[in-house]
Write a structure and sequence with these properties.
By secondary structure, the protein is of the alpha/beta class. The protein has a single domain, classed as TIM Barrel (Alpha-Beta Barrel), CATH 3.20.20.70. Helix 11 packs antiparallel against helix 12. The protein is globular, with a radius of gyration of 17 Å.
């Protein structure tokens, strides 16, 4: 079957090669701490649309709050189409990840006119079955993405053991991240959402392994000035942008944070310049 090009949808995400995707799809993780700041989804979508990022990442059940808006210049929709249970503080007896609609995984994204879909690729210690389920999910979705011209964002996540810091946390080991990113690339990712390496200066190895646009995953909330400095450093290593959630929606002034990150992504601002943009916001 001839592939329908995903270029038209990709163009909605990437302006001048860059993209800021604000993730608010945390409800599917079933983790209460992730919902701080997302209690009123209609209100947070209002604030984010006003802030003007390139995209907002949502699950099907909340996507209408964005897509029912008549404005043509609203942020693009990135739709989360899987869910799993690795994020809770207590390790589950059975770890799992599954598509929200296994028979027709893209039906909701097509209905909501998403610009992209995103699926996890979990690599947790001693959880080979979880990893197998993720590979199966990606394989199933890849075929439909090919058929409908839907860009596929794969989210390779290398995590530390649950007992290291309470709840599965990012393992910033460069070799592990690069290896899993390479696997995502080999499986046909159009976009990769990758964790930052512990040393940002190593991130160019991730870019090299991906061979497609790479957006940096934000993870937990950090000091904003640190976030901006790290973001600028990762962009210099070749990243195309970021997918940040809690560092934006849990902030008192999401619009100012978005402005600072957009300056890094689209204007080449460094961390100090972005901090100035934030303070002017």
């Amino acid at each position: 079957m001839k592939r329908i090009s995903p270029k038209a949808r990709m163009n909605r995400l990437f302006r001048s090669g860059g993209c800021l995707d604000v993730a608010v799809d945390h409800g599917v993780c079933n983790e209460p701490s992730f919902l701080v700041g997302l209690e009123n989804m209609a209100a947070i979508v209002d604030r984010l649309v006003d802030a003007g990022p390139d995209a907002i990442q949502m699950a099907y059940g909340q996507a209408d709050l964005l897509q029912q808006r008549p404005a043509r210049d609203k942020p693009a929709l990135v739709m989360r189409i899987d869910m799993g249970n690795p994020y809770n503080a207590t390790r589950h007896r059975v770890m799992w990840s599954q598509l929200q609609n296994h028979d027709e995984p893209l039906i909701g994204a097509l209905e909501m006119d998403a610009a992209c879909v995103v699926v996890n690729l979990f690599m947790l210690p001693d959880e080979p079955e979880l990893f197998r389920q993720c590979v199966e999910n990606i394989s199933r979705v890849r075929a439909d993405c090919h058929r409908y011209g839907m860009p596929l964002m794969i989210e390779p996540l290398v995590m530390l053991p649950n007992d290291v810091r309470g709840g599965y946390q990012v393992d910033g080991d460069t070799e592990k991240i690069v290896t899993l990113v390479r696997l995502a690339s080999e499986m046909g990712a159009d976009i990769i959402k990758a964790d930052p390496t512990t040393d940002p200066e190593d991130f160019h190895w991730v870019i090299e392994a991906a061979r497609c646009p790479v957006l940096v995953r934000g993870g937990g909330k950090e000091n904003l000035r640190t976030v901006l400095a790290k973001s600028a450093a990762l962009m210099k290593q070749g990243a195309n942008g970021m997918v940040y959630g809690r560092n934006i929606y849990q902030h008192d002034n999401p619009k100012a944070v978005v402005s600072a990150l957009m300056a890094i992504i689209h204007q080449g601002a460094d961390g100090d310049e972005a901090w100035d943009v934030y303070n002017r916001g």
